[in-house]
Amino acid sequence: MKKVVLIIFLALSFQGNSQFRKSMFSKDPIINLENFQKSRVYYGFYLGLNNFDFKIDYKTDTPDILVKRATGFNVGIVADLKLQEYISLRFEPGLYVSKREMYFPGFSTDLDRKREIASTYIHFPFLVKFSSLRTGNIRPYLVGGLATTLNLSSNAKLKDDNAEQKFRVKAWNASYEVGFGVDIFSEYFIFSPSVRGSFGINDELIRDKDPNSPWTSNIESLKSRAILINFTFH
């Protein structure tokens, strides 16, 4: 998270020339792109970071499976349809790359204990954006909605399972997302950093062929969840 804070700080500092400071913080700010959001439809793109985890529910009380997370990246496009002054619909398809490591209890070797989950997602979020009143060149907002995701690295079609060191999850999954952000109006474009939580709805796990599998038999459900940080440019 220190890296995330540093990136946000650098991105904002990049805008920190005298014109930008005058337009943002002076008593009578210069209003940038005053008519931009009067357009009914507008587009953009985003770059960002993600941190994926698993929420695991168990059938019986046993030692937990340890999930080690790593920071991944996001890239995608934005289409925004304005419904009225403060509400708009957003479609933000993108590519999300992440990595997790799972450590299962009860094994003596890493070959059996460790499973590396490298995921490449095609993410399709449909969101509603609730914007506040614009103050100078800043406009905070809340965002939330549903998403469907195609996991290109799911191993869903493989016949091998954990007995052959193959961890499998379903290819298609659903989630809901909630978050907040701020539109910052510069002279030439809108810079919009946002933070969002993503919470899986359906059980993603594909069980092993062995009903008594030491890897999957005690898992009631396995759902992805993530923190998503996006830097959007319109």
Provide a descriptive summary of the structure in words.
- With 234 residues, the chain is mainly beta.
- The chain has one domain: Porin.
- 11% of the residues lie in helices and 53% in strands.
- The protein contains three helices and ten strands.
- It has helices spanning 2-14, 18-25, 110-113, and strands at 41-58, 66-69, 71-84, 87-91, 94-103, 114-131, 138-151, 172-185, 190-200, 219-233.
- Strands 1, 2, 3, 4, 5, 6, 7, 8, 9 and 10 form a ten-stranded antiparallel beta sheet that branches.
- The two termini are 25 Å apart.
- The model is unreliable at 15-20 (pLDDT under 50).
Number of E-state strands: 10
Radius of gyration: 21 Å
* Second-tier CATH architecture: Beta Barrel
What global shape is seen?
Answer: elongated
Low-confidence stretches: 15-20
Number of helical stretches of at least 4 residues: 3
Short description:
It comes from Flavobacterium muglaense. InterPro entries: Beta-barrel_OMP_2, OMP/PagP_B-barrel. With 234 residues, the protein is mainly beta.
What characteristics describe this protein?
234 residues; mainly beta; Porin; 11% helix
List the helices and strands and how they pair.
Elements: H1 2-14, H2 18-25, E1 41-58, E2 66-69, E3 71-84, E4 87-91, E5 94-103, H3 110-113, E6 114-131, E7 138-151, E8 172-185, E9 190-200, E10 219-233
Antiparallel strand pairs: 1-3, 1-10, 2-5, 3-4, 3-5, 4-6, 5-6, 6-7, 7-8, 8-9, 9-10
InterPro entries: Beta-barrel_OMP_2, OMP/PagP_B-barrel
Organism: Flavobacterium muglaense
Protein name: PorT family protein
